Amino acid sequence: MNTRPKHEAARRKKRKKKTWEDHPAMKLSAHQWKLMGFLGKIDGKMFHTNPNYARAVLQWAWREWQLFTSEKSKEAFHVLLIGKYLANEKAAEDFVRKTEKDTGIESLWERAVKMHQLPKDLWAEWAKRADVIVRELVEAIRNEEKAADLEGTIQRELQKMKERTA
Question: Where are the stretches annotated Disordered (predicted)?
Fold first, then answer.
């Protein structure tokens, strides 16, 4: 029976040692860490030198990733609305699909479409505001540019939306 407690202690120690590797932030690529503004992915060596700090960085990075994905989801919805109002939904979808590929965030387009298919009274408040803003922006686009280049227009209008909603 003396070996059982040692075995249990060794098992717990092994489990504790691996918990940082299983953290969802560790599953993010180095590119995704950089997209959030970090210099790169956290190095596993940090867990040996300063494990508490390393865990705090992982928690912080995961919160940042969740905020980043939330913003990209909202951006995808804005782009969907722009595409619908400009009657060029295919270009909007292509733009969002490229964002999915560049960020590694899956189903941005599907989430935007799902939100758009809900009755407007069930939309999130940010989506209702986005609809008003996008309609105003599209009207401005039609009056000023006639929407010659949707991708360039989307980039400019997204920047304006961010400035107006900030």
Answer: 1-21
Cβ neighbours of residue 95 under 8 Å, at least 6 residues apart?
79, 83, 150, 151, 154
CB 82 within 8 A of CB 58: no
- 42 pLDDT exceeds 60? yes
Q: How far, in Å, CA of 135 to CA of 127, rounded?
A: 12
Domain coordinates in residue numbering, the chain: 3-65, 69-165
Residue 27: DSSP 8-state = G
Q: How far is residue 84's CA from residue 138's CA, in Å, rounded to a whole number? A: 10
150: amino acid identity, one letter: L
**Angle, nearest 10°, between helix axes 51-85 and 150-165?**
120
Taking only the tens place, the pLDDT of each residue in 62-72 is: 999 999 999 99
